[in-house]
């Protein structure tokens, strides 16, 4: 089982830039791009059919059709995605949108565009580690993508190092 990061972004250049910034997580983590919400749900179906899990959604707010925040809210009611970590990567969400994302979608982090590559990678590492810890997943197979010191604490706390 691989942890998967979904990148939901309609602008190809931005989606490619995020993917490029996350290449360091390959091959430990699966990275799946989507250009709109319909595409994202198709990707999620493919992920689960192949036995992997959606661990993190990096989502733009302004998308054609359904907004990114509406998608994040929808994720809360789907058992395949309810436990996934949710990060809004946008330059266009107003305060009301952001509050809705926090209150109704369980938003875990907000990254403003343009982002710094190192900051994006640090957020992804933290969120993947949080996901592994909250879901009770053995972190050892995913160690290259996690916050190593926190992952080792999880291993020790659960006696996995014995």
Short account of what is shown:
The protein is α/β, with parallel strands linked by helices and 162 residues long. 44% of the residues lie in helices and 17% in strands.
* Model regions low in confidence, pLDDT < 50 over at least 5 residues: none
- In quaternary terms, these chains amount to single chain
Derived from helix and strand composition plus strand pairing, the structural class reads alpha/beta
The number of distinct helices, counting runs of at least 4 residues, comes to 6
Order of helices and strands: EHEHEHEHEHH
Task: Please give the alpha-carbon distance between the first and last residues.
Answer: 22 Å
Care to count the β-strands? 5
Specify the overall morphology: globular
Largest β-sheet summary? 5 strands, parallel
Round the mean pLDDT to the nearest integer and report it: 92
Name the strands of the widest sheet in spatial order. Answer: 2-1-3-4-5
Radius of gyration: 15 Å
Q: Name the beta content range.
A: 15-25%
- Relative helix content: 40-55%
List the helices and strands and how they pair.
Blueprint: E1 3-8, H1 12-21, E2 30-34, H2 37-49, E3 53-59, H3 68-76, E4 85-90, H4 95-105, E5 109-112, H5 117-135, H6 148-157
Parallel strand pairs: 1-2, 1-3, 3-4, 4-5
Helix pairs in contact: 3-4
List its salient traits.
single chain; five-stranded parallel sheet; globular; 44% helix; 6 helices
Task: Provide an overview of this structure.
The structure is a single chain. With about 160 residues, the chain is an alpha/beta fold. The chain has six helices and five strands; from the N terminus they run βαβαβαβαβαα. α3 (about 70-75) runs parallel beside α4 (about 95-105). The two termini are about 20 Å apart. The model has no long low-confidence stretch (mean pLDDT about 90).
